[in-house]
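User: Can you help me understand a structure? I only have the sequence.
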Amino acid sequence: GVYSKDYGPQFAHCNKTVWNPVGSGLSYEDFDFPIFLLEDANETQVIKQCYQDHNVPREGSVPEYPLCAMQLFSHMHAVTSTVTCMRRSSLQSTFSINPEVVCDPLLDFNVWSTLHPINSSGKVDPEKEVIIVATRIDSHSFFWNIAPGAESAVTSFVTHLAAAEALHKASDVHLLQRNIMFTFFQGETFDYIGSSRMVYDMEKDKFPLRLDNIYSFVELNQVALRNNSVLWMHTDPVSRMNASVEVQVRNLLDILSYSSLGTNVTLQEPGYSQPLPPSSFQRFLRARHIPGVVLTDHRTDFQNRYYQSMYDTPENVRMQYPEGLSPEEMLEYVTDTAKVALFFHIPFGSSLWDPVCINPSSLYKPISISSQVSRMLYGFLIKMNNSWFQSIIKPDIKGILGDVPQHYVAVSSPVNTTCLVQYVLANLTGTVVNLTKEECLNPDRTPSSEREMYDYAWVQGSLDPNSTARVPYCVRSTVQLSKALSPAFELRQWGSTEYSTWTESRWKEIRARIFLVASKELEIITLVVGVVILVFSLLTTYFINAKADVLFSLPRDAGAVAY
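Assistant: Let's start by predicting it. Here is the structure, written out as tokens:
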């Protein structure tokens, strides 16, 4: 984060506010033994049955042998730390013909889009100002690749997607004086990988925007578990000591408060000085003072009792469906959670505009928006492999649609969450264009495509009602991807304290086996018998070898006569 001995030392190390008091930090402990999670009830039942049959005492006596035992196999190649494993991998890659890599840096892609198109391969003019709207799309838990992230990630980026759609479809969009950049950061759970990389690229002129182009920063954090329909507006007290930043932040807070009037959501300030909650905005503040606000459902400590936990599931955000609904009916059903996200996107979206220039009601299309929010929540929390997601992705990546959504950043990129956010955002904010498949896949060959300004995607489309075939089409949007790999690995600073240095070990097959263990007495008897047999075998072998000329001599020829 931003707070340290050099920046707001009074707020560093949670001195002022403990955001997650119920957290134990268990995920960051170093265990010298493997810990397994079994999700299949049949597998756990086999283990329980073996234990009950062989290990449970009978009538107060100790259990009799043989006893049930289980052996776990989880060999990891990496050792000690990122510095050690990356050095070993580097040496292997340099001097070995067949290098054996022992660990990989966490990496993926950020997803971003702008309200008005910009040249993705060029640079935005310094005088043009952009409002960045951000949220994260990844989560984490104690176990690898188990990251439902319902409250910590999904509800916020779904609200963000809904606001992006509403703003793109608003009738007064041409009145906007500043461009808006919708940003979805990946890898934020592991020391802000995505946001730190974007800041680094802006500083090194490797991104279309520079830090000087940022007018303000608005971030959506955890927003689903609010009390009394209140959302809290958090700001950075250190940067607000700057007079010009204070004026802009005050103006942004007033606009946010004004935009919530007449809606089902109330936006309030905490009322006292405290640091920012964990947020991507902190990485931008490390580079320069930027006016910004982080919106959350908590005033101080988290409402979410399962932050970064495998229990941060749809049930945690009170997402429930009536019994008996088919998958298609669940896809379209508007849950209470969807209504929460739906009502919040109105003040959030209108706050990004000058309220004098736009009518907030133009952002509210209850039928279409509520349907989209319901679909997104169902797809990102319940089942990714649904008919809507199938219709908006490319045919060659349909394998990403697994059953149970997980939002872990991983090392193979892009992960399914990144791909789906990319195509959902393109579907909600893009335009269907009349291009053939060949023209859509090769827009450079079409003179009017403006390839530097737009991205083109040939998607599967919905099923034809009169057949089993799909009706594909071409979508044009401003959605782009940018690398979410910590600058520490590009700079080869594997022990950096400035950037994230998280890596993931490579491993062999993870497995387990169940077997019966004999008693100590039987083991000793078996050992003794084995030793006796071994000694007897050695003596027998020695005797046979010593008498080999007698035992194995050739018989004499009967016709031979000796004198």
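Now, to help you interpret it: The CA atoms of residues 237 and 502 lie 29 Å apart. Residues 107-353+366-430+478-501 form a domain with the Aminopeptidase fold (CATH 3.40.630). Let me know which part you'd like to focus on.
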